[in-house]
Protein backbone atom coordinates (compact mmCIF):
# COMPACT_ATOMS: atom_id res chain seq x y z
CA UNK A 1 0.00 0.00 0.00
CA UNK A 2 1.36 3.43 -0.97
CA UNK A 3 1.10 6.13 1.71
CA UNK A 4 0.47 9.64 0.46
CA UNK A 5 2.89 11.95 2.34
CA UNK A 6 0.36 14.77 2.05
CA UNK A 7 -2.23 12.68 3.89
CA UNK A 8 0.16 11.82 6.72
CA UNK A 9 0.98 15.55 7.14
CA UNK A 10 -2.68 16.54 7.10
CA UNK A 11 -3.80 18.30 10.30
CA UNK A 12 -6.76 17.16 12.36
CA UNK A 13 -9.73 19.55 12.52
CA UNK A 14 -8.94 20.91 16.00
CA UNK A 15 -5.39 21.80 14.96
CA UNK A 16 -6.58 23.26 11.65
CA UNK A 17 -9.13 25.60 13.26
CA UNK A 18 -6.86 26.54 16.17
CA UNK A 19 -4.12 27.40 13.66
CA UNK A 20 -6.59 29.74 11.97
CA UNK A 21 -7.49 31.33 15.33
CA UNK A 22 -3.79 31.95 16.01
CA UNK A 23 -3.24 33.44 12.56
CA UNK A 24 -6.26 35.71 13.10
CA UNK A 25 -4.69 36.82 16.40
CA UNK A 26 -1.76 38.32 14.48
CA UNK A 27 -4.10 41.14 13.40
CA UNK A 28 -4.40 42.32 17.01
CA UNK A 29 -2.51 45.45 18.01
CA UNK A 30 -3.03 44.89 21.72
CA UNK A 31 0.19 45.34 23.69
CA UNK A 32 -0.70 42.78 26.36
CA UNK A 33 -2.23 39.78 24.59
CA UNK A 34 -3.08 38.76 21.02
CA UNK A 35 -6.26 36.69 20.92
CA UNK A 36 -8.02 35.22 17.91
CA UNK A 37 -11.29 33.35 17.62
CA UNK A 38 -13.16 31.48 14.91
CA UNK A 39 -16.73 30.27 14.60
CA UNK A 40 -17.20 26.82 13.07
CA UNK A 41 -20.41 25.00 12.16
CA UNK A 42 -19.58 21.38 11.41
CA UNK A 43 -16.41 21.75 9.35
CA UNK A 44 -17.42 25.12 7.85
CA UNK A 45 -15.66 28.32 8.96
CA UNK A 46 -18.29 31.03 9.50
CA UNK A 47 -16.35 33.92 11.02
CA UNK A 48 -13.13 35.16 12.56
CA UNK A 49 -12.29 37.93 15.03
CA UNK A 50 -9.45 39.28 17.14
CA UNK A 51 -9.11 41.60 20.11
CA UNK A 52 -8.63 45.33 19.67
CA UNK A 53 -10.07 48.81 19.98
CA UNK A 54 -13.34 49.65 18.21
CA UNK A 55 -13.00 50.38 14.48
CA UNK A 56 -11.86 53.94 13.82
CA UNK A 57 -10.59 54.48 17.38
CA UNK A 58 -6.92 54.69 18.35
CA UNK A 59 -5.73 51.33 19.66
CA UNK A 60 -3.37 50.55 22.52
CA UNK A 61 -0.27 50.72 20.30
CA UNK A 62 -1.24 54.29 19.34
CA UNK A 63 -2.86 55.65 22.52
CA UNK A 64 -1.65 53.29 25.25
CA UNK A 65 -3.59 50.80 27.31
CA UNK A 66 -6.50 51.93 29.49
CA UNK A 67 -5.79 49.77 32.52
CA UNK A 68 -8.28 49.58 35.38
CA UNK A 69 -7.85 47.66 38.61
CA UNK A 70 -10.66 45.71 40.19
CA UNK A 71 -10.92 43.81 43.44
CA UNK A 72 -12.72 40.49 43.53
CA UNK A 73 -13.69 38.48 46.60
CA UNK A 74 -12.48 34.92 46.31
CA UNK A 75 -13.28 32.16 48.79
CA UNK A 76 -10.69 29.38 48.93
CA UNK A 77 -10.92 26.63 51.52
CA UNK A 78 -13.46 28.67 53.50
CA UNK A 79 -11.17 31.70 53.66
CA UNK A 80 -12.05 34.99 52.02
CA UNK A 81 -9.41 36.99 50.24
CA UNK A 82 -9.45 39.97 47.91
CA UNK A 83 -7.78 39.39 44.55
CA UNK A 84 -6.57 42.37 42.53
CA UNK A 85 -7.20 42.12 38.79
CA UNK A 86 -6.04 44.43 36.01
CA UNK A 87 -7.64 44.72 32.61
CA UNK A 88 -7.55 47.01 29.62
CA UNK A 89 -10.90 48.61 28.90
CA UNK A 90 -9.88 49.98 25.48
CA UNK A 91 -9.96 46.51 23.96
CA UNK A 92 -12.96 44.57 22.72
CA UNK A 93 -12.19 40.90 23.24
CA UNK A 94 -11.94 38.50 20.30
CA UNK A 95 -14.96 36.50 21.46
CA UNK A 96 -17.04 39.68 21.76
CA UNK A 97 -16.05 40.78 18.25
CA UNK A 98 -16.90 37.31 16.96
CA UNK A 99 -20.40 37.61 18.45
CA UNK A 100 -20.81 41.14 17.07
CA UNK A 101 -19.91 40.10 13.53
CA UNK A 102 -21.73 36.76 13.21
CA UNK A 103 -25.42 35.92 13.08
CA UNK A 104 -27.26 34.07 15.84
CA UNK A 105 -28.61 31.54 13.35
CA UNK A 106 -25.02 30.62 12.39
CA UNK A 107 -24.00 30.25 16.03
CA UNK A 108 -26.73 27.76 16.96
CA UNK A 109 -24.98 24.47 17.76
CA UNK A 110 -21.60 25.72 16.58
CA UNK A 111 -18.08 25.63 18.01
CA UNK A 112 -15.83 28.55 18.93
CA UNK A 113 -12.08 28.04 18.70
CA UNK A 114 -10.21 30.68 20.67
CA UNK A 115 -6.51 31.04 21.40
CA UNK A 116 -7.14 31.82 25.08
CA UNK A 117 -9.63 30.54 27.62
CA UNK A 118 -12.46 33.10 27.75
CA UNK A 119 -12.63 35.58 30.61
CA UNK A 120 -15.75 35.72 32.76
CA UNK A 121 -17.49 38.39 30.64
CA UNK A 122 -16.80 36.59 27.37
CA UNK A 123 -17.85 33.25 28.87
CA UNK A 124 -21.18 34.79 29.90
CA UNK A 125 -21.73 36.14 26.41
CA UNK A 126 -20.75 32.87 24.74
CA UNK A 127 -22.99 30.91 27.12
CA UNK A 128 -25.94 32.94 25.85
CA UNK A 129 -24.96 32.92 22.16
CA UNK A 130 -26.25 29.54 20.99
CA UNK A 131 -22.90 27.78 20.69
CA UNK A 132 -22.45 24.29 22.09
CA UNK A 133 -18.65 24.01 22.34
CA UNK A 134 -15.60 26.15 23.17
CA UNK A 135 -12.10 24.92 22.35
CA UNK A 136 -9.14 26.95 23.62
CA UNK A 137 -5.37 26.65 23.96
CA UNK A 138 -3.87 28.98 26.59
CA UNK A 139 -5.42 29.00 30.05
CA UNK A 140 -6.67 32.16 31.77
CA UNK A 141 -6.35 31.32 35.48
CA UNK A 142 -7.94 34.58 36.74
CA UNK A 143 -11.44 33.38 35.83
CA UNK A 144 -10.94 29.68 35.13
CA UNK A 145 -12.93 28.11 37.99
CA UNK A 146 -15.97 30.36 37.45
CA UNK A 147 -15.91 29.82 33.69
CA UNK A 148 -15.62 26.04 33.95
CA UNK A 149 -18.57 25.99 36.38
CA UNK A 150 -20.68 28.16 34.05
CA UNK A 151 -19.98 25.93 31.06
CA UNK A 152 -20.94 22.84 33.06
CA UNK A 153 -24.21 24.51 34.13
CA UNK A 154 -25.01 25.45 30.52
CA UNK A 155 -24.02 22.05 29.11
CA UNK A 156 -21.46 23.63 26.79
CA UNK A 157 -18.48 21.42 25.96
CA UNK A 158 -15.38 23.24 27.18
CA UNK A 159 -12.00 21.81 26.35
CA UNK A 160 -8.37 22.75 26.16
CA UNK A 161 -5.92 21.71 23.47
CA UNK A 162 -3.09 21.34 25.97
CA UNK A 163 -0.65 19.58 23.60
CA UNK A 164 -1.31 21.99 20.72
CA UNK A 165 1.61 23.98 19.26
CA UNK A 166 0.74 27.29 17.50
CA UNK A 167 2.11 28.06 14.04
CA UNK A 168 5.57 29.65 14.21
CA UNK A 169 4.34 32.82 12.45
CA UNK A 170 1.72 33.41 15.15
CA UNK A 171 3.85 33.03 18.28
CA UNK A 172 4.06 36.12 20.49
CA UNK A 173 5.16 36.93 24.00
CA UNK A 174 2.11 37.22 26.22
CA UNK A 175 2.05 39.47 29.26
CA UNK A 176 0.07 38.05 32.18
Automatic annotation (TrEMBL):
Zn(2+) binds at residues 93, 119, 122. Pfam families: dCMP_cyt_deam_1. The active site is at 95 (proton donor). Keywords: Hydrolase, Metal-binding, Zinc. GO terms for cellular component: cytoplasm. GO terms for molecular function: dCMP deaminase activity; zinc ion binding. PANTHER family: DEOXYCYTIDYLATE DEAMINASE, DEOXYCYTIDYLATE DEAMINASE-RELATED. GO terms for biological process: pyrimidine nucleotide metabolic process. Its cofactor is Zn(2+). Residues 12-158 form the CMP/dCMP-type deaminase domain. The lineage of its organism: Bacteria, Bacillati, Bacillota, Bacilli, Bacillales. It comes from Paenibacillus nasutitermitis. This is Deaminase. Belongs to the cytidine and deoxycytidylate deaminase family.
Amino acid sequence: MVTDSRESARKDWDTYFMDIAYMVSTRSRCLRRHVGSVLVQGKKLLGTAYNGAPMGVADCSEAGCMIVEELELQITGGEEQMIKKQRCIRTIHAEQNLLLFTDRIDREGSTVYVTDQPCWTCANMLANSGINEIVYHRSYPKDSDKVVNLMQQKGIQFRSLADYEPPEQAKINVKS
